[in-house]
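Board notes (copied after class):
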Amino acid sequence: MMKEGEIMPHIHGLNKTTLLDYPGRVAATVFLGGCNFRCPFCQNSSLVLHPSEEPEISEEEVLRFLKKRTGILEGVCISGGEPTLSADLEDFIVKIREMGYPVKLDTNGTQPEVLKDLAEKDLIQMAAVDIKACPENYPSLTGLLKPDLDAIKETVDFLLHGKLDYEFRTTVVRELHSEEDFHKIGVWLKGAKAYYLQAYRDSDEVLQPGFSSYSLEELEHFREILLENISRVEIRGID
């Protein structure tokens, strides 16, 4: 039951079973609304541009579902949008952790203090950070003139030198990324334990539809560049 004065998270989606969103686990993914980026290739534009207009799922319904699936599901992924913007995120995760689920948090890395706090309280067991591009190309890839690169670098540094399990990933768009991006990303993320190149897929839900993906051969070339500095680099999203 909701307590008086308690703020509920704005949940706009629930993927009840996924083998992809939490590596190595059968998981459910919860999607929260709102974002501080305007990435032109974003696949969840409705959650970014007008989340208040999207249908909501109550926290109670989500928690009831998760309780029924204990012993079947092996984890919960919280995504968005940008979930670290939700003031009630910690309370929501506490309720999930009380059921025994490990939690993975998807983030753009702009709220390092939130990530660190959740990690230090053992409320999240893994983080996935979307690396949009090399730092100097973040403005064009995020739709912002001055994205908070210091915050993103702080998040990256925390993961590279901390104990929290993590992965970095980049959705690769032909019109927005070049070979030079991956030379620079490799240097930036040198020593990272896991990095994924994700093939872009166009759809009507993309914030600015009409972009295209690189071929598998081209993505393999980028992978070879990254392997100069990162020991594990894999490709996702190619059939």
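Comment from the instructor: The mean pLDDT is 93. The chain has eight helices and eight strands.
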